[in-house]
Hints:
alpha/beta; Rossmann fold; six-stranded mixed β-sheet; four-stranded antiparallel β-sheet; 10 strands; globular
Amino acid sequence: MTEQTGNAHGGARIEVRGLSKDYVHGGLTLPVLVDVDLSLDAGEMVAVVGASGVGKSTFLQILGTLDLPTRGSIQFDGEELTRLSPQRLADFRNKRIGFVFQFHHLLPEFSALENVTMPSLIQGINATKARASARDILGRVGLSHRLTHRPSELSGGEQQRVALARAMVLEPSLLLADEPTGNLDRPTGEAIHQLFIELNQERGSTLLVVTHNPELASMMPRRMRMVDKGRLVEETEPPQRATPSPEATHEASS
């Protein structure tokens, strides 16, 4: 197999500013996220931990454009996602964002190969090329011998490897994972997290993983804790971002 060195788009740079999400229930407004800020560099790997109910999954769904914020800004490589039409947003999401959830959501009537081929076919990619890409990524996650097996014929760890392969087959700019090892035993969960890291390094996607498990989160270079109403607290030193030199600033203003 030819080694992958990065994806077609490269990892996405994400800027979230003042993100808020309210729900209305029984005539009352319930704030779930309040003024959340987050910056992710292209290709960065980040884990977010926190107690149940603080808004981690809601934040991930909004970041992945599965839901819209009540207020705030999400910039994806400089493009403001909150202003896109629903059709444009769906197309953007399918091409640029990959998802892995706690429950694999594989189609039970299809084989592992067919499940992983599906995203490419939806994008209109030639069936032969789509199957080749699916075989390649399934081989990378150690499932070359399971191509024709349906989800019910796979173990929990194998099912999640198929889900990871499906999320990565189009080499997304942003990969979002919501409790991806929540249903797995500890050794299997650690192996899946290691695959996330290896695939990120090989293919260059920006990676954000939400997890309850601090031991698994510790495998990530950058860790954040989400507290009440979505506030994010750094648990590791954030990466140093380049700032313009005084000379460059002077030249730009002259």
